[in-house]
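Open question from group meeting: does this chain pack into something compact, or does most of it stay loose? Before anyone orders reagents, we agreed to write out a predicted structure and look at it together. Recording both the input and the output here so the notebook holds the full record.
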Amino acid sequence: MSSTEAPLSGWVVADLSIGIAGGYCTKMLADGGAEVVKVEPPEGDPLRTWSASGAAIPDGDDGALFQFLAASKRSVVVDPGTATNLAELHELLETADAVVWTPGSSLADLEVLRPAALLREHPHLTVTTITPFGLDGPWRDRPATEFTLQAWSGGVIGLGRGDPERAPVFVGGQVGAWLAGAYGAVGTMVSCMRGDATDATGDATGAGEIVDVSMLEALAMCLTYYPVTYFDALGRPFRGRRSIVTPGVGMAKDGMVAVGVGTGQQWLDFCVLVGHPEWTQDRSLFRERSHLAPVVDEWFAGHTVDEIRDLAGAFRLPNAPIANGENLPHLDHFDARGTFVANPSGGFLQPESPYRMHPAALRPPEPAPPLGRDTGYRAGGRRARPEAAAASPFAGMRVLDMTAFWAGPSCTHPLAMLGAEVIHLESTGRPDGTRMLGAPMTEEQWWERSPIFSGINTNKKSLTLDFQSERGMDVLRRLIATVDVVVENYTPRVLDNAGLGFDALRALRDDIILVRMPGFGLDGPWRDNAAFAYTIEDASGFTWMTGHPDQKPLEPYCVGDPNAGIHALAGLLLALVHRRRTGEGVFVEAAMVDAAVNVTAEQVIEYSAYGSLLERAGNRGPGAAPQNLYRTADTDERGGNDSWVAIAVEDDGQWEALVDVLGRPEWATGAPLSSAAGRAEQHDLIDERLSAWCAQRTGDDVVAALWPAGVPVAKVMQPHRQGELEQLRARGYFEVVEHPVSGAARHGTLPMRLSRGPQRLHRRHAPLLGEHNTELLGELGLTTAEIAELEDEGVIGRAPA
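Structure tokens returned:
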């Protein structure tokens, strides 16, 4: 393979999916260089005629979102009722490395094209499936939508998000579909790479398998913050009653802007910034300050967006403008970085890839194919993937994890769960910040009691090292020479000032892979801005789409971090494939905000293609009517009435099923409500009647009545109650991990199952601070005396300084 070819050149992927999740999965593979052959029934993927704003798609044209997701792919049409067509499809599958499958099309729903049948007929294939609940478990065939899945996941309540006097709100857009697609791409690459790998004897270690991606599990992982682990360890939820974050989104003189406070020091600085230093005297305000909102709002209203951002930046406070489909491409940072480019066929704007790399190169996007353009296409011979026993995909790979908090560890943790040796680097002067999220500092070994740190760092080793010291830097350089991959998410200047750029690392090991995860990238005017999950959400459109339309938007406060992690992992895997083929090291820049604008791409696409600004609509959405949350008769955990169910009706059949359950009342059976357009127009009436019906019933009663009838429905779960869901229990999503300090707790795993294993993902508890200092430094040749000297000098240690 030439070093200028895209990493996945030579891979062939058959795309038997419809919709965003499968489309994004295969787009990521196509961008990586794979030959993606989209296999469609004669009517085509419904996404060809989709527009979130309802814009009319002319006959013969394809919707803009489809053109974005289908770039660089081929299209073949297969009639599910024609034996000759199906035989030709099987010929294609014989030449493919992988197939991506989602249910719901006339092709994919054929028994002979369901996942197990595909693997039986073509045992060499990686069969990646993306479904609402996964392929097994009691809910596997239950109806669901993005909206109801967010409710089941705990993501609607999230981290205490929202006005407690109003219904909670889901995270706007189809975030679950995009996240599941990203996990599907990662799972496909992991499986196919395992097929390429060899063991110590030189024998191949992989073959075909099913990669089973659950959208529910992806949402549970990415819209909540390890709530079950936290609750098991500490006996209380991570967040209490819902509230509006203060500060947060503010209405300035000329637009909306957000300022974040994530640490105690940031709160003290904010008090000074807004001219209220007396607030610093009341320590309780750091935890509960929503009553200060009117004063803070007045301050926002007295300044422009630029003034607020300049002032906040001077205090190093996280801040960002509230971006949307109209203004996103024109913000100075994205303009300077060339983040948005013209679609090769439609001319509208779309985001560039979520990662940049060299010397490896991604495939430049090519126009999306018209329906059936490539019918009759035959790929060349597939890459050899002989049968072999299952093995941990990354056994033998060593990773230096120079990351902290949530985003960076979200990239490295799957590697640790799938067999890599991951060394988590901290220092006693600056431990990973998630170690602070747990027990009070008055407790013994408080830094080992964080459920958040535990949830995202199992199977790793811990090395503490102050590399700002001369001896620490010497040790770090010696360690880097022994690793395959370095991942870091410091602010850009840290690695630059330490002289640890890609060229410096290649001097230590010429085939090293370096993945950097800056918040806003390594160049551009926002390069050095502080980046937290909520800041990334503000700057990418997540916040704009979340909230009630008559209130300021709400920061999701979650997805910005894990979304960055899974995309960085995808870039890392492409780099590994490139190195395996060429022997070259690779540098990957996976900016958090670049991952975010890919997942919110529909906003920019809709505006630039159709002039339609997508906006938040509370709990309503373009694909269903009715779609909303309805209060039930349950009493919540605090004795209040904050208990809800989510109901979404996507088609006429589901509406008729709902009307039957309601007893076919006269108001629901008239002609105006027999069509989707009529139901959307009469949404207020439907909400009023459903609210009255649900208010007389418990959530369990509503679900028991509607779900068996075929209506998508869900209880709005408190995040720490995820473990009660029988579907997650049946699939073994949680595994109990014993910790020597904090005890036993359930830990979430991954939202994808690899049928060839490993079957258990958490093999060891998260490491104690500096637990592996002696082991790792001894492997570098340091003597016991030298290690003791480093500890005496504070270069290493086992407790925070």
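Observations to bring back to the group:
The first strand starts at residue 12 and ends at 16.
Residues 640 and 654 are 32 Å apart (CA to CA).
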